[in-house]
Amino acid sequence: MKASATLRIALRALRRNKLRTGLTMLGIVIGVGAVVAMVGIGNGAKSQVEAQIASLGENVILIFSGSTTSSGIRTGWGSAGTLKIEDMDAIRREVPGVAAISAEVRAANQVAAGNQNWMTQVLGESPDYFTIRQWPLKDGAIFTEQDVRSSNKTAVIGQTTARQLFGDESPLGKIIRIKQVPFVITGVLSPKGLSVMGSDQDDVVILPYTSAMKRVMGLTMLRGISVQTESAKDLPHIQQQIISLLRERHHITRGKDDDFTVRSQEEIAATATETSRILTILLGAVAGVSLLVGGIGIMNIMLVSVTERTREIGIRMAVGAHGRDILIQFLIESITLSSIGGILGILLGIGSSQMLSTFAAWPTVISPGAIAIAFGFSAGVGIFFGFYPARKAAALDPIEALRYE
Question: CA nearest 14: which of 387, 257, 338?
Answer without folding.
Answer: 338
